[in-house]
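Exam revision sheet. Question 4 asks you to relate a sequence to its structure. Input first:
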Amino acid sequence: MESRLLRYFVAVAEELNFARAAERLGMSPPPLSRAIRQLETELGVTLLERTTHSVALTPAGSVLLGEARIALDALEAAGRRARRAAAPEPKLVLAVKADGDGGLLEPILARFAAEPEAVPVAVRLCGWQEQPQLLRRGEADAALVFEPFDRTGLDAETLAAEPRVVALAAGHPLAARDRPVLADLGLRPGDVHRFIDETRGVGRDLAQLLTLVGLGDLTPLLPASVAARYPRPGVVYRPVPDAPPVVFAIAWPQQSRSTAVAALVRAASAVAEAGPGTAREESYSPAHRG
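Answer key, structure tokens:
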């Protein structure tokens, strides 16, 4: 299969309209239709059911759409990685959610800098749950990420788990409780990931989030390390003993053969194994950020 035919098919499958797909691809509908017929002939299956007024995916077409997206993303990612590898000063791009490293980023970078395979690291700050896509698109070589996440095409190693706390306005009724439980927040354990996605996954940075907490608009569950690193007037943090822990992992593309990425994973694992004591006290220089 040619990647060109796959791109044509994805456009038609997403638009379910040959005219719109042709416009999107910058071509006319007749050659696009012929290309789809060629792809169907090569595969020996019908991908699209066509009528005068509609286009619909067949079961085979639905399967190919998912696989084609992965294949095309992989091709684009390979090109991006090749271009970065050919740069005069290659760097390793590490994707991290702002304020979402569990306090591990700086000691990991310090540990990695001592590895023989170390290269400069460019830290790519990103949004909530954006790291897996950056890895699959070849825009990052590794990522620190909260679990669970979409592991399609990725390998990962769990690094650490830490308790959750609830952030409350100082005047909130629960602020007087030493250890509120999920039921006090109107939550069950199975609601926790959804709750975090709703409160942190809307493009807010931590400063914005805590401002809303102080105003009494939010009561988010956060990693306990946030309480230590971000004290804020008008906001109190209380442990929630029955909340599932926050789990951090380092992830990288399955097809990666980079010795620098392997060294970074080793460094991250060593820091995590050392725990919150001496490992987090290692020296760190801004130069590590590339």
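Marking note for examiners. The CA atoms of residues 92 and 234 lie 40 Å apart.
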